[in-house]
Every structure is written in C-alpha cells, then in structure tokens.
Write a sequence for this structure.
C-alpha cells in the first residue's frame, strides 16, 4: 500500500497534538501513512506550500497564524471555507491543493451528539467573533438553529460576522454585559474566546448568574479540559462540553477527506487526554 505523508503547518507548532493523534489513527487502521508537524515562518508560507506540492505531500492541516494567508497559495477553496474566510485542511487532488474548513463541521458533529432534539429548536448564543467563532457560526447558520446570537468584547466584529452569515440565517448581536443579563433565554451557550485557557485559568468569558439549569454550556478550550467557567456552569446545573470533541471532530473530518476512512474518534479523544496528562 502507498505510504503518504501528511502534516500540519503552523508557527510555532511544537505544542501541536495533531501528529500523535493522526499517527495513532493511521496505525489503528493499518495505514502506512505518516503525519508530521512543519514549523513554517509566515515569511516563507508560499515557498513552503510549493515545496509541499513538489514533495508529493498528500494533504495537510493549517493552524495559527496561516489559516487565512494560506488561501492565497492553494488552487481551490471550498464554499464553506470561503464563507468562513479561513482554511484548516488541504486535500491534494492530483496536482491541485483544495482548501476546506473542518472546524465548524467538526464542532457541529460533536454538538449534534449532545442534543436530544433537532438543533432547529435551540436558541444559541456564541461568545466571541474570532476565527473559531466564524467557523462555528457559519456551520450553525448553514445547518439552521431556532435563533443565533453573537456576543463579543468588540461588538463591531460580532456585527461583521452576523452580516457575513445573514444570507444563511438572521443573527442578533449583543455586548458581553447584555449577554450576561439575557443568559436565561438561551438553550446552548458556546465560548469561542480564549478566556480561561492555560495559563490564565481563573478567567471566565461571562458571568453565569442568570443561566438556566439544563443549559448546554460548551467551551472550545481543551487545556484545561474543564475550565473554571465549565466548573461553575456544572455547579449551576448546566450540561457541559469541552473543546476536545471539536478538536477530535475537525481532525476526524480531515482524516476522512484524506483517506476515505473513518477513524475511531473515541480512541483519538482518549489519546489527546493522555497527551494532556488528564488535565
Ligand atoms: P481569535 O481569532 O484570536 O479570537 C479570539 C476571540 O476571543 C475574539 O472574539 C476576542 O475578542 C476574544 N477575546 C480574547 N481575549 C479576550 C478577553 N480578555 N476578554 C474578552 N474577549 C476576549 O482566536 P480563535 O482562533 O478564534 O481561538 C479562540 C479560542 O478557541 C482559543 O482558545 C482556541 O484555542 C480555541 N479553539 C479551539 C479549537 C478546538 O478544536 N477545540 C479550534 C479552534 C480554536 P475581540 O474580538 O474583542 O478581540
């Protein structure tokens, strides 16, 4: 069987858990492929991608800070990735590099496993309007939810994102303070900001005093695995979900696009938890 080389490009990249997650999944399916982390200086992104094509690399992930810039250097961009404005997965078709964004779909897949009714019955609040929020809001708007609201520290960024998805679904915007006061009106609340991430683990994105019991509280952060915000939510009766399911979900979708095979997501998840030392 042909042994393909895959990888991830980022700067820095030494912290990435993608190589061990994908290599474990390749081995589990008896595939002879390998996944490598490539540290690519932003000044050399174009050269790096030309080199990857010349070397026959079969596909790669793209992480910070290259998710937007990479779009200038590949041959084709999928419709949803174009709408999100970022590419996190590149697939080679013959001699062409095609860009996708699996972040939003990976998140959506994980969320669908968590809810008991169709998502169209849920009022959703997304906190944040950065890259991850763009992916999630676009996928949610594409899928359809009862209502979609974005709250962000810089409210103009929330308004710009709401405008960008308005052809898919109307979207409300609010300040973080307004979101705190209105929290009881949402069924699903998603933190897409970096607030609470290691090492600033005491910080919370919004206060949960007005949250309803049974609210689905989802945090994209997976280091730590249970943020202070999720801990507080759990104490107040929320159903909590950390960023691990999205990380594994986006990786599994990329894996499927590259190999045509479905990896064992439970095993991938377990592997990442072990890498994080169970934190
Ligand atoms: P980004 O594009 O830099 O966006 C950061 C967002 O956080 C912005 O909305 C920003 O608000 C907000 N923010 C940052 N510091 C803040 C503070 N002190 N107070 C209030 N808001 C603050 O970053 P990103 O790529 O979207 O990533 C965001 C988080 O998602 C990170 O923790 C990342 O690790 C996580 N993530 C997880 C996955 C996964 O697979 N689980 C995937 C992607 C990202 P302003 O607009 O006002 O600056």
């Amino acid at each position: 069987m042909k042994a393909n080389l895959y990888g991830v490009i980022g700067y820095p990249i030494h912290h990435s858990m993608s190589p061990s997650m994908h290599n474990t999944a390749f081995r589990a399916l008896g595939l002879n492929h390998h996944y490598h982390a490539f540290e690519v200086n932003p000044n050399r992104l174009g050269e790096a991608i030309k080199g990857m094509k010349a070397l026959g690399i079969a596909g790669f992930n793209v992480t910070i800070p290259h998710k937007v810039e990479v779009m200038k250097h590949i041959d084709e961009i999928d419709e949803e990735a174009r709408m999100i404005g970022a590419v996190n997965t590149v697939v080679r078709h013959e001699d062409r590099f095609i860009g996708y964004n699996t972040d939003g779909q990976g998140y959506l897949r994980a969320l669908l496993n968590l809810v008991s009714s169709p998502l169209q019955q849920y009022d959703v609040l997304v906190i944040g309007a950065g890259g991850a929020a763009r992916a999630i809001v676009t996928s949610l708007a594409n899928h359809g939810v009862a209502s979609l609201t974005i709250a962000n520290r810089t409210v103009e960024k929330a308004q710009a994102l709401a405008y960008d998805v308005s052809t898919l679904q109307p979207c409300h915007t609010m300040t973080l303070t307004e979101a705190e006061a209105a929290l009881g009106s949402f069924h699903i609340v998603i933190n897409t900001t970096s607030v609470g991430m290691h090492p600033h683990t005491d910080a919370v994105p919004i206060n949960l005093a007005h949250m309803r019991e049974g609210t689905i509280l989802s945090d994209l952060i997976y280091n730590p695995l249970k943020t202070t915000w999720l801990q507080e939510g759990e104490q107040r009766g929320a159903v909590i979900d950390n960023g691990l399911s999205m990380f594994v979900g986006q990786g599994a979708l990329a894996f499927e696009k590259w190999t045509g095979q479905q990896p064992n997501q439970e095993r991938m998840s377990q592997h990442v938890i072990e890498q994080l030392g169970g934190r």
